[in-house]
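2024-03-11 09:14:02 INFO worker-7 job=invfold-0412 stage=load source=structure_tokens
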């Protein structure tokens, strides 16, 4: 639009006469620097031009340039006209401005708005008449008219009270600040006025009324504060504490996440019946007491709790569940276990020892556990059999631990690591429940105490039960009742490194093994047919005693070994072989399939033929009636033979015909034992020789 106005403003009148010469030539053939061509001449000249281009370095005045004329190249010069430039479009550079484009510019005053017109804004010009305005940047100045509901703007600071645009967020924040979270019925001035009964002097009225009330800072009430049923006294910014009566019951409710504290600076806090009977008493710096019918039944102490009477559960299980240990302290008395009021066992302390006792006649003590989900009886202490211990399976002992049998520990069974060795208080505390009694330490130990001192504890060791006696040399006793008599079935002696001493037999079922040693190196068991003492280790199996006897179960000797003395072998309870300091003594006949040596190394043999005064001699006695095992101190003669016929004058003894047995010299010295039958038949002079063994 500005260019069009410039063209109009710059137009010059073509037909102005300034006194110059006037040319009237249709072809404008004259070359006059000062002559003015007539309109007729120019028209005739222009009409006669057929070229498509007009090149001019000066002004092109008057007339019109119609469509189809072609291009006008005026170089850097100005084309000026006071008339119209017609055509379909106006092209400047890459811009193509058509009639509609020019119509959007035509007739617009700078700073104004018209329908379907372009907006021309000069510096510091106002624009009026805008219908819709969309902007992505900042709009400054004064806005009038409607702004679209979706239009957004910067929310100003709450403290800004200028004429800037206020967003809905700014307005809401201001209103929210003004009403301060007031409910909908009090969130405008009219509602507030109604709320104060349209009292124009409400401040004075309120001040007068408040003067008769207890101030917020506190004060002294001169009368009662009365709340109707279900009307609550509420405390806390979040209405955390409520005190009220619902018509039937009274309530003190802490409804938040905090604690409800009842505190005193006096001697204590009491919960009482309205007639003064105690129900709960909490003494400052002392006990908390629980009452039943005004009788003290449970009180806390510096070490735990004190119960007067019984702990009972009407139905279901009684569970003691604590984060730490559970301690049962009978204060010198026994800890009793009852079923339906009848005692069936107990735990008590005697000296430094722990006793576990069954009170039922012939009532056994059984140790149960779980093996892969199956309930098994690992150990039974049979009171009907004088406390016999019956293990369901192997009984295992580590290296160095001994199994001792006999009142004087005559028989010991243990493994030293490499070698298996087989040798010689006041008032009762009652826990009474209709079902099970459960002691649950919740990850801690169960302690048993006497007068505050722990004498035993029970620990869950990864699914296993540990029984621990902390007292020095404090033993563990397992007691029961055998026909009315209290017996100690099993003693675990802590003064002897936990040595287990059974009062009676230890019974294992068939194929259940008594395993001794860390690697179960020695095993004792019965497989249903035979009994075994198996040394599975690499060391020796040693049976040790000052006097070791292997007997038939009826008591008949089979082997007897004396410390620093003889070893004796028996046959049908009769001794047959006995070792001596110089060799062995045989009672009876020695039978062998072979014999090594010629006797040349024997000592003590006389120069007379077969006069054996050493260990053995083949001989006979002149007496009669000697049998195997008999001893004789003298009259043992070595036997000899001759192959000559007997004569009546011969003094020898006839053995057989034609051979004869003769006396082989003098009698042997010492004491001898016959290994077979030996005698002399005086009538027939036929002696019966045998092997004699010298015993002294």
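2024-03-11 09:14:09 INFO worker-7 stage=emit residues=696
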């Amino acid at each position: 639009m500005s260019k069009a106005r410039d063209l109009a403003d710059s137009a010059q009148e073509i037909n102005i006469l300034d006194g110059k010469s006037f040319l009237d030539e249709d072809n404008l053939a004259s070359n006059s620097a000062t002559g003015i061509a007539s309109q007729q001449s120019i028209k005739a000249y222009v009409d006669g031009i057929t070229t498509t281009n007009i090149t001019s370095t000066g002004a092109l005045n008057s007339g019109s340039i119609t469509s189809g004329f072609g291009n006008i190249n005026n170089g850097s010069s100005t084309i000026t006209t006071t008339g119209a430039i017609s055509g379909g479009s106006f092209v400047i550079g890459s811009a193509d401005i058509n009639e509609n484009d020019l119509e959007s510019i035509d007739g617009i005053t700078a700073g104004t708005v018209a329908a379907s017109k372009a907006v021309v804004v000069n510096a510091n010009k106002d624009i009026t008449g805008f219908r819709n305005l969309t902007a992505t940047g900042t709009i400054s100045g004064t806005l009038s008219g409607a702004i679209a509901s979706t239009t957004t703007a910067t929310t100003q600071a709450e403290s800004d009270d200028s004429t800037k645009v206020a967003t809905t967020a700014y307005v809401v924040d201001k209103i929210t600040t003004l009403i301060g979270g007031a409910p909908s019925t009090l969130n405008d001035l009219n509602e507030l006025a109604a709320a104060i009964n349209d009292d124009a002097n409400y401040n004075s009225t309120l001040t007068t009324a408040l003067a008769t009330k207890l101030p917020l800072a506190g004060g002294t009430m001169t009368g009662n504060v009365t709340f109707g049923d279900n009307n609550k006294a509420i405390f806390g910014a979040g209405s955390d504490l409520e005190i009220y009566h619902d018509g039937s019951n009274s309530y003190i409710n802490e409804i938040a996440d905090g604690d409800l504290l009842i505190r005193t600076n006096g001697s204590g806090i009491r919960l009482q019946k309205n007639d003064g009977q105690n129900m709960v008493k909490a003494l400052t710096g002392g006990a908390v007491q629980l009452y039943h019918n005004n009788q003290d039944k449970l009180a806390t102490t510096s070490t735990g709790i004190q119960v007067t009477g019984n702990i009972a559960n009407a139905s279901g299980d009684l569970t003691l569940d604590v984060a730490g240990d559970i301690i049962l302290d009978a204060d010198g008395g026994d800890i009793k276990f009852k079923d339906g009021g009848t005692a069936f066992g107990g735990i008590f302390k005697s000296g430094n020892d722990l006793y576990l006792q069954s009170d039922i006649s012939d009532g056994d003590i059984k140790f149960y556990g779980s093996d892969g989900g199956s309930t098994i009886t690992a150990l039974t202490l049979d009171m009907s059999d004088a406390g016999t211990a019956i293990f369901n399976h192997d009984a295992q002992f580590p290296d160095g631990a001994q199994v001792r049998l006999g009142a004087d520990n005559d028989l010991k069974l243990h493994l030293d690591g490499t070698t298996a060795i087989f040798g010689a208080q006041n008032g009762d505390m009652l826990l009474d429940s209709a079902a099970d009694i459960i002691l649950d330490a919740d990850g801690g130990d169960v302690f048993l105490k006497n007068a505050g001192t722990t004498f035993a504890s029970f620990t869950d060791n990864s699914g296993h039960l540990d029984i621990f006696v902390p007292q020095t040399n404090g033993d563990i006793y397992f007691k029961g009742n055998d026909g009315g008599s209290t017996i100690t079935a099993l003693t675990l002696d802590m003064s002897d490194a936990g040595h287990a001493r059974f009062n009676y037999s230890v019974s294992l079922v068939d194929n259940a093994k008594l395993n001794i040693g860390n690697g179960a190196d020695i095993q004792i068991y019965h497989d249903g047919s035979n009994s075994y003492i198996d040394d599975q280790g690499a060391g020796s199996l040693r049976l040790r005693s000052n006097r070791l006897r292997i007997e038939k179960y009826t008591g008949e000797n089979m082997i007897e070994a004396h410390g620093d003395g003889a070893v004796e072998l028996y046959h049908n309870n009769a001794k047959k072989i006995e070792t001596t300091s110089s060799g062995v003594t045989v009672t009876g006949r020695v039978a062998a399939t072979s014999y090594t040596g010629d006797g040349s190394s024997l000592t003590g043999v006389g120069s007379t033929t077969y006069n054996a005064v050493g260990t053995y001699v083949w001989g006979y006695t002149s007496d009669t009636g000697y049998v195997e095992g008999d001893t004789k101190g003298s009259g043992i003669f070595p036997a000899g033979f001759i192959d000559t016929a007997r004569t009546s004058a011969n003094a020898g003894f006839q053995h057989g015909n034609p051979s004869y047995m003769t006396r082989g010299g003098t009698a042997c010295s010492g004491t001898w034992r016959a290994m077979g039958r030996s005698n002399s038949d005086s009538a027939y002079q036929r002696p019966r020789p045998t092997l004699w063994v010298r015993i002294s």
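2024-03-11 09:14:09 INFO worker-7 stage=report msg="Residues 266-308 form one domain."
2024-03-11 09:14:10 INFO worker-7 job finished
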